[in-house]
Amino acid sequence: MKKSTCITTIAFAFIMLLSTNVDAQKFSKLDKSPMDAAAFPTSYKNTNKLIKIVYSRPQLKGRALSELAPNGKVWRLGANEAAELTFYKDMKLGNTPVKAGTYTFYAIPGDKEWTVIISKDLNVWGSYFYKEANDVARLAVPVTSGEPLEAFSIAFNKADGGVINMHLGWGTTRVAVPFTK
């Protein structure tokens, strides 16, 4: 009996020693620029959305906005993958009609204005593969300033005349992108 207990104990210890190196699942570390989404209407109770954007939220962490989103260069509007903009109904960016669907949303930052771009490209990482030939709409919008924001942020609100503004904010830079039905 003692011999069988000793063998069982040794076998159990051996199995435990081997199983400590087996991982059921390896998870990657948390993303430093987590994904977020903003939609209009903004209430989660309203499921009849007109617009939704999915983007990553980079942090300034002591860096200048011009370092992360340089003036005059196409920027993916966030971090990692380019921001994806979905229209659930036909909309207009400025005076340019845009059909319902999903698009990539870019910007070209500047000191006094940003050019925002809706592109038909999808599943694009960064702005490395941006092609102007795939633009659906472009609009120059003025830059204003506000209280400092550490994380890049997007929010929507309804303005006069049925305009839906997509507000982009990072650091003290603010840009309002107007959409209409």
TrEMBL record:
Domain of life: Bacteria
Record's signal peptide: 1-24
Keyword field contains Signal: yes
Keywords annotated in UniProt: Signal
Keyword Signal: yes
Protein name per the record: DUF2911 domain-containing protein
Organism: Flavivirga amylovorans
Organism phylogeny: Bacteria, Pseudomonadati, Bacteroidota, Flavobacteriia, Flavobacteriales
